[in-house]
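Exercise 7 asks you to align residues with tokens for two separate proteins.
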Amino acid sequence: MTSISQSEFRNHQSDYIAAAQRSPVEITARGTNRRAVIVSPEFYDRAIEALENQIDIEGAKTARQEERISHDELMMELDR
């Protein structure tokens, strides 16, 4: 990952946006404080999809641990 200062980014924005298409670019302030990371749209989309998949996996685990009831019990509970 490339790491640059905010001022360096301001001076060469288009170069670093182009570089972010290949690899993330970290923007720092005062040399060490990470302020932002620029990534390609494809990288961002893959990251969001992975997070959503992880949320779905966790939700499925929780659902499997819930108490199960029969169809008849459900219908009685719904008063039908």
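Second protein for Exercise 7:
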Amino acid sequence: MPRYEFRCRACGDTFEVNRPMAEAGRPATCPQGHPDTVKLLSTVAFTGRGGSGPVGGAPAPGGGGCCGGACGC
């Protein structure tokens, strides 16, 4: 289940809420009980095992073009 990060505008507390993606836009109440919160934009990074290429250690596709040449554009 996705985890969403929120910040309370009243006390400044940052907290996380686990909820289904269908409920991602639903407001959250801060643990202190304040209702005025804002959802933060979080980033997620995935890394492969050992290699410097994509997950699985396969080399990155080569070539030119706007997208690296993998799609043949």
